[in-house]
Amino acid sequence: MSFDSLGLHAEILRAVLDSGYTEPTPVQARAIPVVLSGRDVLAGAQTGTGKTAAFTLPLLHKLQPYANTSASPARHPVRALILTPTRELCDQVFDSVVTYSKYLPIRATAVFGGVDMKPQTESLRRGSEIVVATPGRLLDHVQGKTINLSQVEMLILDEADRMLDMGFILDIRKILSLLPAHRQTLLFSATFAPEIKKLAEDFMRSPETIEVARRNATNESVEQHIHSAEAGNKRRVLAHLIRHHDMQQVIVFTRTKLMADRLARELKRDGFNCEAIHGDRTQQSRLETLAAFKEGTLRVLVATDVAARGLDVSELPFVVNFEMPTNPEDYVHRIGRTGRAGALGIAISLVSPEEDKSLVLVRKLTNKPLEISEVPGQMEFGRPRERSNGSSAAPTAPREYRESYEPRESREPRAHRESGRRVIEQVETPLVEGRRRNHDAALGGRVAGSVHRFHHGREVVREVPALLLPPRYTVSK
Length: 477
What we know:
Elements: H1 10-18, H2 26-36, E1 41-44, H3 51-63, E2 80-83, H4 87-100, E3 108-111, H5 117-126, E4 130-133, H6 135-143, E5 154-157, H7 160-165, H8 169-178, E6 184-189, H9 194-203, E7 208-211, E8 222-228, H10 234-244, E9 250-253, H11 257-269, E10 274-277, H12 283-295, E11 300-303, H13 305-308, E12 318-321, H14 328-335, E13 345-351, H15 356-366, E14 372-373, H16 399-403, H17 408-411, E15 416-418, E16 421-423, E17 425-429, H18 436-443, E18 447-453, E19 459-464
C-alpha cells in the first residue's frame, strides 16, 4: 500500500514525499481511512509506530477546506485540539503538523508550560486552526480567556495512558466539558488500561478500535542484553560499555531526577559529553539539550521516563537502562526508542540484586527469557549471583585481572569488625626499595602498615599513610 491510495490531499502527499516516506506504517494504513470517514478512533499504538502521522495527516486533510490566507483572526478559529502529556511530545507533534502542512495555509500553535505565555497568547489571538497543548497550560489560557474552544471539530488525545499516569484525568475531563458535544475524537494509547476504556466510554461515540501492537510487544529489531551489576559498580560498567561499543549516541534511563543529575555529573568527570533532562530543568534548557542530542553534538543523554516521552531520534543506535523501571511497561517504551523504522538497535539493561523482581516482571510482560550475559570486553564487575529464574551471570574473571578494575576505595586498607569493635594491628614498615620510595617521596617519612586477617586465614600487609590513622597509631620518623 502507498500513501497515494489513502485518498489524502495532493499538497499533503507532497509534504509526505518531501519527508522521504512512500509507504504507510500499519497503524497509518488502518487509522487514516477510518479518521477520514469521520468515525471516532481508539488506537493502541506504541512509540515508534508512526502514530503521530496516523492522526496528523487525516486531520490536515479534513481541515484543508478551511485553509485560507486571510489576516483576520476570525477566519482562523481553533478547529482541532491535540492534547499531549509532556512539553517534549507537544513540541514533537507540533513539528509534525508544521512539516505536513507546509503547502497549506493552515495555522498551528504549540501551547505548553515552562515558558513565557506571552508569545503563545499572541499566536492564539492571531488565530490558529490547530492547537497542540499540554492540559495544564491549555487551562491557563482558558482561564485567561485567550483561547476559544467553541468551534473545535476534532479532538486528539496522544499517549492518553501517560496523561492518566501523570494525574491529568481531572484536567482532561474539564477540557472535554468545554468542547462541543458534536465532534470527532481520536484517542491514541500504548495500553488499553481500564481507565482508558472508561474515558472512551464516557466521551467517545462508538469508536473504531485499532490495535497494531500488543502492550507487551518489543521490537524484533532491538537486541536486548541484560548484565549483572552491583548498584555501586553500575557507573563504571556503563562507562566501560560506552567505550567498548563506541557509543556515539545513547540515551541512558534512570528512575529519578536525582539519579539523572548525579549520573550526568559522574559521566562528565569520566570524560563523556553528557547532559541530563527531567522535569525540573527549564524548558529552554531541555529544548537546547534535546537539539544538541539530535544533532549529534551531545553523546550521552541521561533521562527520566517522563522527560524522554516524545523524544524521537531517528536511527538511535543505543539505549541503556541504568536503573530498571518500576513499571515493566516502561521497559517496552524505553527500548522502543531504538530500532525504529527497520533500523537495528541495541538495548542494554544493568540489573542489581535489588532489581531482580523488576527483571522478573519484564520477562513476564515481554514473554522473553532475557538471560543474563557477561559484560563484553573481557571485563567482570562482581561475582555471579543466582537469579530468580535460576540463571547466573558468567564466571568471575581471575582475581588479579578483576582487581585492576576495582575502584580505588576497594583497594584501600579496610578495618574489619571483631566483637563489635574495629581492630587494627599495627606494624612499623620502613620505606625501602622499589615503589615504596615513591611513597617516601610523597609522604616524607615512614608509614604504618595494617595486618588484615581474612576468613581464609591469610594475612595481607597493606600500607596506610600515617596521616590517615588515629594519633595513637602514628609512627614517628
